[in-house]
Each structure stands twice: as C-alpha cells, then as structure tokens.
C-alpha cells in the first residue's frame, strides 16, 4: 500500500492534457466534499507547470465557488495572463461537471535582493516537547457520523502538534488564536515547487477553525455548517514542508455568518516563510440535518 505522503504527492502531480490543461484526481479524506487544500495545491501545481522562466510563486489568491465532488476528477485550465520583465501571473480555473468550482490568480517573481524585515515568531514549546494528539476512543468514535470517523481515524500525510490542544468534539470557548507545529511525515525530494504545493495543501488545515474558538463550536458538531469562501497565501522565504513549521493563527473578526482567519508560518529557526488569510462561512443551524447539505454560499 502506498504511504499517505506518496498518495499526496501523486494527488498534486497532475495529468497534463494540453499545454495549459490539466486533470487532477480527488481523494476522500473524511471531509464531506473535496478538501479545499487539495484544490489549492493542485491549482498551484498547474500554474507552476506553465512557467518557462525561473520564477518562484510568491502569492496566490483564490475563491471557492462550489463544493467539489470527491468521486470525480477536476480539470484545471491555466491562462498565461502575463510574463513581464520580472513577474509572471497565471489564472487557474477548476472545472467539475461542466461548472467552475474554484479559481485563483498566482503571481511569480524572479529572485532579487532587497530590504528584509519580519515579525518575530511567538515563543512556544518545541514540537518534540509536545505530545502527539491522542486518538479518539473507539466507543466515542462509533457515535460519530461516518465521514467524521474517517477524518479522525485516518493517518494523514502531515503530523500536527497543537501548542494549546482543544477538544473539538466538546469545544470550550477560547480566545481566537492558536499555534500548531506541523510537518510532512516523510522526507521528500528537494524541488521547491513541490514544497510550495505541499504547503498550499497544508495551509487549509486549522485556519478557518480558529474563528470558531470564541463561540465554543466546531466543524464536527452536526448543526455547524462551515465552508471556505476564499484563501490567500504568500510565500516569503525558502522552506521545507518535511521539516517542522509553526502555524501561528488568529481570527480578528466573525460576523454575518462569516469568519476571518489569518496565519503566519515560521520555520524552526524563526524565519517567517509564508502567510495566509481566509474568510469562510460559519453557520449554526437549528436543523442538524441541514448542515449535511452543501452550504449555499
């Protein structure tokens, strides 16, 4: 059986149908619909595959329009919007069942010198000083919906260690911030393009959930409906996704059925390597069965 890491790399390795046309498969990891990080990583992979100049992705801005169907592949079309003197822009559209489910713009930049500064990494325990997350007891797991069981019992490609763990099945009310160490569970090759696609995938974990902390709710509760609406990602400095990275997250606002979350990603040496932002739909519905349907965003 292939490992979760090799499965993820296969997932991000798209089939090229034409110069600017790609096809990606989908995986059921226990979410109700296609995991947003999968679409982000695949779209970035498609954009990177059309680059003919030595330029690295430095930003990605995306919108999620429809829920993705896990049972079917996704087709990605890339528009080579601009190749300038030092910047390139690609626009990627994801299509499934004849409809656009996602689109994004990605910008690429040639490496050049310039002034540097960054915010300092929070002072937190090292990842090896934090115990791995405990598994959900079998008797508790058996009471949960099948999809939630798959999500909680799976062995994913990334390892996460929460500085301040929260019981997602019985969430307390807490201030809207958290820090999470994460890394790919196996070593992989050195290609920077691969590590950026892997980070795009991982950046969708725990981000929107931070906006639920002050309200004592979570995605696992049957009457809670959550969906990503957009996602922004900036790459600042080189990194490896198979080495420990600290995801420092906060949520400055929630209102009108939407929550905003932000994240800064540091390496072990305290270098800020990437930043994220996301707004998402967060609804608490009276009828728990209604939360099982696709959110009408």
What is the strand content? 35-45%
What would CATH call the class? Mainly Beta
Number of strands: 13
CATH superfamily: Acyl-CoA thioesterase, double hotdog domain
- Largest beta-sheet characterization: 13 strands, antiparallel
- Outline type: globular
CATH hierarchy: architecture = Beta Barrel
Q: Look at the structure and give the mean pLDDT.
A: 91
SSE layout:
Layout: H1 4-12, E1 15-18, E2 21-24, H2 36-49, E3 56-64, E4 74-83, E5 87-96, E6 99-109, H3 138-141, H4 146-153, E7 158-162, E8 177-184, H5 192-202, E9 224-228, E10 230-235, E11 245-255, E12 258-267, E13 272-284
Antiparallel strand pairs: 1-2, 2-4, 3-6, 3-10, 4-5, 5-6, 7-8, 8-11, 9-13, 10-13, 11-12, 12-13
Give the key terms.
globular; single chain; 297 residues; alpha+beta; 13 strands; Porin; disordered C terminus; 13-stranded antiparallel sheet
Molecular structure report:
- The protein is of the alpha+beta class and 297 residues long.
- It has one domain (4-110, 128-292): Beta Barrel (Porin).
- It is built from five helices and 13 strands.
- It has helices at residues 4-12, 36-49, 138-141, 146-153, 192-202; strands at 15-18, 21-24, 56-64, 74-83, 87-96, 99-109, 158-162, 177-184, 224-228, 230-235, 245-255, 258-267, 272-284.
- Strands 1, 2, 3, 4, 5, 6, 7, 8, 9, 10, 11, 12 and 13 form a 13-stranded antiparallel beta sheet that branches.
- Strand 4 (74-83) and strand 5 form a beta hairpin.
- Helix 2 (36-49) runs antiparallel to helix 5 (192-202).
- It is globular, with a radius of gyration of 19 Å.
- The N and C termini lie far apart (38 Å).
- 33% of the residues are buried.
């Amino acid at each position: 059986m292939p490992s979760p890491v090799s499965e993820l790399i296969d997932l991000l390795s798209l089939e090229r149908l034409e110069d600017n046309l790609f096809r990606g498969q989908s995986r059921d990891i226990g979410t109700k619909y296609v995991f947003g990080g999968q679409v982000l990583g695949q779209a970035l992979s498609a954009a990177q595959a059309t680059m003919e100049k030595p330029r690295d992705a430095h930003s990605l801005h995306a919108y999620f329009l429809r829920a993705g169907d896990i049972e079917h592949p996704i087709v990605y079309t890339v528009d080579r919007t601009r190749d300038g003197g030092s910047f390139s822009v690609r626009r990627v559209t994801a299509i499934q069942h004849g409809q656009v489910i996602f689109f994004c713009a990605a910008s690429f930049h040639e490496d050049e010198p310039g002034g540097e500064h960054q915010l300092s990494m929070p002072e937190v325990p090292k990842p090896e000083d934090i115990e791995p997350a405990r598994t959900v007891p079998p008797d508790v797991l058996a009471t949960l919906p099948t999809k939630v069981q798959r999500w909680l019992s799976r062995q994913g490609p990334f390892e996460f260690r929460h500085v301040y763990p929260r019981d997602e099945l019985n969430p307390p009310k807490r201030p809207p911030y958290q820090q999470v160490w994460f890394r790919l569970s196996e070593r992989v090759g050195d290609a920077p393009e691969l590590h950026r696609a892997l980070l795009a995938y991982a950046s969708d974990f725990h981000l929107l959930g931070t906006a639920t902390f002050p309200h004592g709710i979570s995605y696992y509760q049957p009457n809670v409906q959550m969906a990503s609406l957009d996602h922004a990602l900036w790459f600042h400095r080189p990194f490896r996704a198979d080495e420990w990275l600290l995801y420092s997250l906060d949520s400055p606002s929630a209102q009108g059925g939407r929550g905003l979350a932000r994240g800064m990603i540091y390496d072990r040496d305290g270098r800020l390597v990437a930043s994220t932002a996301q707004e998402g739909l967060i609804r608490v519905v009276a009828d728990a069965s209604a939360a099982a349907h696709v959110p009408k965003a």
